[in-house]
Amino acid sequence: MKVAVAGCCHGALDKMYETLELLQRRHNVRPDLLLCCGDFQAVRNEADLRCMAVPAKYRHMQTFYRYYSGEKKAPVLTVFIGGNHEASNHLQELPYGGWVAPNIYYLGYAGVVRFRGVRIGGISGIFKSHDYRKGHFECPPYNQQTIRSAYHVRNIEVFKLKQLKCPIDIFMSHDWPRSIYHYGNKNQLLKMKSFFRQEVESNTLGSPAASELLQHLKPTYWFSAHLHVKFAAFMQHQTNSKEELPKATKFLALDKCLPHRDFLQIIDVEHDPSAGDSLEYDAEWIAVLKATNSLINVTQTSWNMPENNGLHAKWDYSVTEEAIKEVLEELNHNLKIPCNFTLTAACYDPSKPQKKVEPVHTINPQTTEFCAQFGLTDINDRIQQAKEEGSVRGEHEEEEEEEEMDSIGSAEEPSEYNTDNSGLSSINPDEIMLDEEGGDEDLSTCSVDPSPDHPPDFSASFSDIRIMPDSMAVSSDDAMDSTNEELEKSAVSKQVGEKSLNERPLKRIGGNENGNSGIKKIKRRNQAIYAAEDEDKTE
Questions:
Q1: 460 in any annotated domain
Q2: Cα(162)–Cα(503) distance, rounded to whole angstroms?
Q3: pLDDT at residue 474, as a whole number
Q4: DSSP characters over 245-288
Q5: Model confidence over 72-106: pLDDT tens digits?
Q6: Is 353 contained in some domain?
Q7: Which helix (H) or strand (E) holds 35?
Q8: Residue-wise over 306-316: b if at least 16 C-beta within 10 A, else e?
Q9: Which residue ranges have biased composition labelled Basic and acidic residues (predicted)?
Q10: Cβ atoms 380, 94 nearer than 8 A
Q11: Number of domains, the chain
Q12: Is position 81 within any domain?
């Protein structure tokens, strides 16, 4: 089965699908499935644009609304996770996942599905330590804090995923797992993105929560985006016993969707020929959702997940074969996800712009149906109830010092998450600025026309095999990279993209890692662009 994987598409669905169709016409390659690793931007209307954490100059409608309205239909089944540049109000309607348009499926805050027997998981958002242990309390209309915290990863989603026992074939995260750069060609990465050096050398680049999941799940493939650079790594995991077969993960980070970028990758994945062509629920994941339902929290209060520390009567929420069988019986062994997409907001009409429309908190019928079917808590319904009771106000009311106290850890590894350097901390000139002083480039266009004279090469590069220690700590050996300029290549993927002579890269620079220094400046086409000191403005 051929699977296409895309990085940050920034709402340019027309261009992304046109690229796939062009690939089919010119090279007779037709993907069976498209995966997108965040910053999908499922923007339906002007209200959705106001819920996207980017400066007003980047709030472009793009083309998703055409698929939402039914004017167009995705030519290939598309599954995506959320990033940090999303219409958060729209995605929040589907905390457990669901259809955002016909043939386009969102995995939710975290989720696992199956397609042709291939097990696909993912976690949405990016890691920020000060919000990690809070509940999903945000709801529109957002303020300046909640518009960003809404897409921050929470410990409950990581906890749920860590209850899985069955193997995962493909996993997606938006930001990179921390330490992954030590298992690829680090020298080449730093040559392309020299501003990563400080964080790479201090081992603070990336998400510690994603690193924890990588260690636990050990998927065959792991795909990420966020940092707007292509990077491959190959890791062989340690085994827990002599009887356990060794496992390895092929990691690939995808570039953003621009003409000069390799933003699309095609891989061949083993699948079940007898399986149908429908997207399906994963029975173990549904059973885990049922088992952890009592842990749902919709408050700003920081809390730890249950662990074996003498404070919790139960800490293991993994499910038994019997629980999985019960899910299958509830579904009459029909795991097909119903095509129950429903319009829940007015669609953008170019002839009738609605610039002053306010976003509202909506309960999606898909979520209502899903929760009723499996006996789960509708998070949005719970938030509305809590608002009526006055316990949720959608604002950060804690003092900054209290937030810092809350940022020191997860339930599983409280000492591991004492930093707040998530992937893109301060100085990535390719990232969209979240203040009005950002660059003026539109980052939501992508290539339609790979060069006919140079067809895409069916290969992806992975580094030499290295053993990943349990703690993901970096040894002195790990700090050494291959001296080869080219990574070892494995015939598992196809690169798509072309270079543009009209390239206009967005650049910026920030203060030091702690955000304490004065703002520096760089030149871009003889114009100064200043970075924001606020940590979330560097996401």
A1: no
A2: 42
A3: 33
A4: PP-EEEEEEPPPS-TTS--EEEEE----TTS-SSEEE-HHHHHH
A5: 999 999 999 999 999 999 999 999 999 999 999 99
A6: yes
A7: strand 33-36
A8: bbeeeeeeeee
A9: 387-396, 486-506
A10: no
A11: 1
A12: yes
